[in-house]
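ok trying this again, last paste got cut off
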Amino acid sequence: MTAPGDPALSAAAGPLYAAPEAFTLTLTLGGRYAGEQNWAIHAERSAVVARVQTDFGGVLPEIRRVQTSRLHPRQHTSLGYAEGDGRGRASFEVNFDRRSGLVTLRQGRDEASAPLTTDYQDPVSLLLWLRAQVAQATPEDGGDPATPERTHAQLTGGRVLIQRLPDQEIAGVPCSGFYLRPGSAYVFVEQASPWRLMRLIQPTDFGPVEANVSAAPGRRAAPAGAPERRRRRA
C-alpha cells in the first residue's frame, strides 16, 4: 500500500498548474439538475491554490459552499483548507504548519492543535492528488495509467481507503475510476492531458449527487442515465 507522501508517487514529471485553470461541473440528483460547481486553480508562491464554489439548486435547497485548499505543488498534499459560505470568515479552517510541526483546526470560536506527524489531504486536495497520480502514471504512448490498485490518504477526520475501479468511458473520454471509503464516493479522472475531473459522485441525505464535467464545445453531453461503455483493463 502506498501513501500520498511516497516519493515514488509525489515526484511528478512536471507541474500540472503552470497556468491558471477554471472549469465547471454540473450537479444532478436522480438525473435532475441540482446546481453547479465552479473550480478555479492557480499557482501562488510556493503553493497551488484551488477554490471550489458549489451552488446547490434545482431539486436541492439553494445553498452555497466555498472551499479553498492550498496544496504542495508537486506532492499535492494539503498545506491548509477552509470552508464556508463565501460571505465572511470560513466556518471551518485547518492549517498544516510544517515549520512549527502543528496541525491547527478552527471551527467557529473553537481552536485545537495537534502534532503534525504525517502528510494530510483535505476534501479538495485529495481529488487533485488523485488527478496528479493519473497524470504521472500515464505512459508516453497514451496507454492506461498504472495507478495502484489500493492506496490510502490521511484526512483530519481519519484515513480514507482508495480502491482503483475498472476503466470507464464518460462522454466518450477514457477515465480512471476510484472508490473512496468511508464515504462511498466515486472519482473519475480523464486518462490523457489535461486529466480533467470528469465525474464525482458523493452520497448525501437526499441521495447520491453527481458532478459531471460540462460538455466541450461542439460535443453534446450524454443524456442523464444513459449507459456508458466500460473498458477492460489489461
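PB: full thing came through this time. The longest strand covers residues 32-44.
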